[in-house]
């Protein structure tokens, strides 16, 4: 861990399978790290599959690991990873659920990243019950788009 970067934390990672790939950034400025499946598969149209990565992590207390979709998969192939959170006390295999929103079967290769992971701080929250909140806009979803 480099003390020169205050945004750097150490995360222990364990390969549960010899073919597992350690997450990597696609570019130096990427916010998240790409993860790869252990096996190739085909997702049926409008279907889903859960794929193992062969990896487990030990996060420091106060952090979560978010599993996020890759925009390229979604835009080019209609395949989207389920957005999820791994808590710091979860140390089992990282698995990714993929959905095929397309009308054709989609082949998933071991050589293509299927999702990305991002480590974020988790804040302790104290909820304070009250009978009133400060006044804000009322109107719900899409209400700010109206003139």
In percent, how helical is the residue content?
Answer: under 10%
| Number of contiguous helices | 1
**Oligomer type:** single chain
Major pleated sheet = 4 strands, antiparallel
Give me the CATH superfamily: Deoxyuridine triphosphatase (dUTPase)
Rounded Rg: 19 Å
Query: What is the succession of H and E elements?
Result: EEEEEEHEEEEE
As for the CATH topology, it is Deoxyuridine 5'-Triphosphate Nucleotidohydrolase, Chain A
Beta-strand residue fraction: 25-35%
Give a nutshell description of this structure.
The chain has a single domain (12-122), classed as Deoxyuridine triphosphatase (dUTPase) (Deoxyuridine 5'-Triphosphate Nucleotidohydrolase, Chain A, Distorted Sandwich), CATH 2.70.40. 5% of the residues lie in helices and 32% in strands.
Description:
This protein is mainly beta. The chain has a single domain (12-122), classed as Deoxyuridine triphosphatase (dUTPase) (Deoxyuridine 5'-Triphosphate Nucleotidohydrolase, Chain A, Distorted Sandwich), CATH 2.70.40.10. Helices cover 5% and strands 32% of the residues. The chain is built from one helix and eleven strands. The strands form four sheets. The chain has a four-stranded antiparallel β-sheet with strand order 2-11-6-8, with no helix packed on it. It is globular, with a radius of gyration of 19 Å. The termini are far apart. The relative contact order is 0.23.
